[in-house]
Amino acid sequence: MRRFTAVLLIYAALLLSVRAEMSQAAYLWQRAWTPAVSTAVAEQTTQLDGLTVLCAEIKLSDSAQPTRVEILPDWARLQARGLPITLAIRAAVYSGSFQQDQAMTRCLLDTVAASLGRARAAGIEPAAVEIDFDCATRQLEGYAHWLHLIRAQLDGPELSITTLPTWMERSAAFAQLLVPVDHFVLQVHSVQRADRIDLDASLCDPQLAVVG
Q1: 89 with 129: CB under 8 angstroms?
Q2: Of 32, 42, 107, 162, which is least packed with CB atoms within 10 Å of its CB?
Q3: Measured distance CA(54)–CA(75) in Å, rounded
């Protein structure tokens, strides 16, 4: 009984240690900031250590010309809340060239700079910039070029990206993609519950997360 109690105490201590080290952040993927959203930022984020806020989207027209759509967060409420803020930029699915002279590349770099400028003008120094781009797995090398360009123009904030499970199938390209990145968020599109307790649960189905 003593041995069992000792094991439980050790397990509890380890569990508390892990929980103490884990941070909790949330996404505010909100395109229209209503009064209810602003109120939620003030009242429902007391247990959080940070917020990732959608601040811009890049869309492609029928002629494949990129257009920046700026989101208008309640910067004053975010600034008053005082949490570390990550600026999220969503880029449309794109299959063209990733070279620096391309319109999509220029639009992305301009959007990063404009988003940082708007946040700083509101008194917020962003903790990070996160790029949400569902790159085709075959184009990871091109995306890595984008990320190096973005990294070069960041003067303080960290760089984060969202990633897809299928990218890991190209392990060498995925490793190179992460070179200019401080951290990444793995997007899991499908969580399946096992039918029986003796079966392993599947965290995600790679076939449901295939892009390009």
Answers
A1: yes
A2: 32
A3: 12
How many helices (H) and strands (E) the chain has is answered by: 6, 7
Could you tell me the residue range of the domain that residue 71 belongs to?
23-209
Q: At 188, is the pLDDT very low, low, confident or very high (cuts 50, 70, 90)?
A: confident
Euclidean distance between CA atoms 70 and 33, whole angstroms: 12
CA distances from 145 to 84, 106, 130, 136, 194 (A): 27, 13, 16, 14, 40
Three-class secondary structure of residue 175 per DSSP: helix
Tell me whether residue 6 is in a domain: no
**Which phi and psi angles does 118 have, rounded to 5°?**
-65, -40
Q: What is the CATH number of the domain that holds 57?
A: 3.20.20.80
| Overall pTM surpassing 0.85 (yes/no) | no
From CA 170, how far away is CA 153, in angstroms rounded?
Answer: 27
